[in-house]
Design brief:
Layout (H helix, E strand, L loop, with lengths): L8 E10 L2 E11 L4 E5 L6 H8 L7 E6 L2 E2 L4 H7 E4 L11 H11 L4 H14 L15 H13 L5 E5 L7 H18 L2 E6 L2 H5 L3 E6 L2 E6 L1 H6 L4 E7 L2 H12 L4 E3 L2 E6 L2 H12 L3 E7 L3 H9 L11
Parallel strand pairs: 3-8, 3-9, 6-7, 7-8
Antiparallel strand pairs: 1-2, 1-4, 4-5, 9-10, 11-13, 11-14, 12-13
């Protein structure tokens, strides 16, 4: 893989293990400045380990990893000044006010008081929590806490922002609002965003995705490119008794079947056109049936044999 000096993030043959247990195996990828890149995979895929390496919480064991041209093995202090991090676990002190949390963070980075006041005021206005500056963090909603967390990670104006499952636990509206803030940050300031996720809504926002499974890269590309790697459409059927009709459905559709989450899934051409015949023959057994274009979940299933939720798939 050709990597250039322009890359915001570069990984070349990165491997990492906990004792004798491998967490990452020969991982290589690059992210251009200003892009939003997703680390997509189920629990145990290696995305959390990669995130911790990028955020300097773990030392690089094997291979080369750099951020903004800075070597993560030898220049960790400089790397920390170039990244902002929002972890999945809350990193705000609920006993302090919003303003106190932000001031503490700014002082840790050595930001001068007058500059810090301006930065906090600007971020509070941009992320729409200027009226809650005196509120204790413990009294905020989940969505508002996430906005403050993001502002906290941007106080020192980093070139790269790392987000670990940033909208996990948020309702749909709060999730959409948070992703809109990320999009606006990129548009205005050219910030590079790396997001570790297992959620399709977050993955769909990314310019590029790194699909990880058991520590290895199984695919690289944009969401559209990854979906285009599959032919046909997906036909998903939930039956009263999947076992009783599975063989007959496979024979009728002339296609193999994947079973996951109590559903039978087929990848076939013109899936929508097959619906009437399937319903006519198996109407008494079918609880639900859906024809859809391939999803990122389908891509992952096809490549690994299990879902992004980590469920093994029967065939």
């Amino acid at each position: 893989m050709e990597l250039t000096q322009r890359d915001a993030v570069r990984a070349e043959h990165v491997s990492h293990a906990y004792g004798l247990t491998p967490a990452l195996v020969d991982v290589s990828f690059s992210v251009v400045p200003g892009a939003m890149a997703g680390l997509l995979g189920p629990n145990g895929s290696g995305k959390t380990t990669l995130f911790r390496l990028l955020s300097t919480l773990l030392e690089v064991q094997t291979g080369h990893l750099s951020v903004s041209g800075l070597d993560l093995r030898t220049q960790q202090i400089l790397v920390r000044r170039n990244i902002g991090v929002t972890f999945q676990s809350p990193a705000l002190d609920g006993r302090l006010t919003v303003a106190e949390n932000l001031h503490c963070q700014g002082r840790l980075y050595g930001i001068r008081q007058n500059v810090l006041r301006e930065q906090i005021a600007e971020l509070a206005l941009r992320f729409r929590f200027e009226d809650r500056m005196s509120a204790l963090v413990s009294t905020l909603s989940g969505g508002l806490k996430r906005r403050v967390e993001l502002a906290k990670g941007l106080l020192h104006q980093p070139a790269i922002v790392l987000l670990d499952e940033p909208t996990s636990g948020l309702d749909v509206w709060a999730r959409q609002e948070f992703l809109a803030l990320i999009s606006e940050q990129r548009r205005q300031f050219g910030t590079t965003v790396i997001v570790a996720t297992h959620l399709m809504e977050e993955a769909e926002q990314c310019d590029s995705l790194l699909l990880l499974d058991r520590g290895r890269v199984v695919a690289l590309g944009s969401p559209d490119q990854l979906r285009a790697s599959l032919t046909g459409e997906r036909l998903t059927i939930r039956c009263r008794d999947n076992t009783a009709v599975k063989s007959s459905l496979c024979a009728m559709l002339e296609a193999p079947c994947r079973e996951t989450g109590g559903e039978l899934a087929f990848q076939i051409d013109r899936a929508a056109d097959r619906l009437p015949a399937v319903l006519d023959r198996f109407r008494d057994q079918i609880l639900s049936i859906e024809a859809a274009s391939p999803s990122l979940e389908d891509v992952f299933l096809n490549l690994t044999g299990h879902s992004l939720r980590g469920q093994e798939v029967g065939t």
